[in-house]
Amino acid sequence: MNQSYRRGYDSDDMICDCEACRADLNQVDDHLRETEQTNNSMDEMMRQSADRLYRIPVFLSRPNVLNAVQEAFMRRLIREIRRELLFPRTLPRTEQYPETVLENVRRLVNSSYGLVATNLKQLEVDVLGTNTGRFPTPRIEWLGSEFLQIEPSMAYQRGLPLLLIRERGVEGTGIWSPGIAPFLIFLEWDPSQPLNEFFNSNAWKEVLKNWAHEVRNGYYIQTEPEFRYKSC
Questions:
Q1: Residue 6's pLDDT is what?
Q2: Which residues in the chain show pLDDT less than 70?
Q3: Fewer CB within 10 Å, N- or C-terminus of the chain?
């Protein structure tokens, strides 16, 4: 893409040698240099995903507070999504609207064609008992973000294709409980294992490809004209 962009500008029949065109070419050169010099942080990767190459937006539902291992996992996940030529969007990294939080979520769901949810460890709690009594021995559990219950549920209500990933050890409550349809099948990521163990697995590759196909198919269906004026 880099070479073809420059070749179009270098062609004699595409651009003249006036001062305005030279300034335009310099801006292109500056942009290309900046792109090559960007770091590999998750924020930068999200901004790069807004490039015109990634035309089909998907909602990336994730916690805002990440440790180093979770950050590395998210960076790799974003790269995997972008390889499918999909644009991962998330609040507030890529966009934010002057509305309430739930209105922001609803607007993002309504303008996306799929959702990826990552239920990662957030709070470690000591469970002493329930409403029926105390446990003989308190147990420790990890809780995820409450928005990892809300956002996938809203996306399901919208009918979006879902790709669900849960970090091992996170309590299975709500939509993440085993047997809750349509959230019956989700992938589990073990942070104690190398990232390649997860992303090179057949399970991940199969789920990603199937999900990306559903997203792309839904995109083309939703962007078809309402009325057809000729037969296929």
A1: 37
A2: 1-54, 93, 181-185, 230-232
A3: C
Q: Tell how many helices (H) and how many strands (E) occur in the chain.
A: 8, 7
pTM, rounded to two decimals: 0.71
Count how many residues are written for the chain: 232
Q: In sequence order, what are the beta bridge partners of 32?
A: none
Q: Say if residues 218 and 94 touch (Cβ distance below 8 Å).
A: no
Strands 162-167 and 187-189: parallel
> Beta 86-89 vs 133-143: how paired, if at all?
unpaired
The SS3 assignment for 116 reads: strand
Q: In angstroms, rounded to a whole number, what is the distance separating the alpha carbons of residues 204 and 202?
A: 5
Angle at 221 between CA 218 and CA 226, to 5 degrees: 145
Cα–Cα distance between 37 and 29 in angstroms, integer?
12
> Distance (Å, rounded) from C-alpha 121 to C-alpha 142?
6
* Contact (CB, 8 A) for 46 and 13: no
Three-state secondary-structure class, residue 113 = coil
Question: Rounded to whole angstroms, how far apart are CA atoms 215 and 99?
Answer: 27
What domains appear along the chain, each with residue ranges and CATH number?
39-222 (3.40.50.10140)
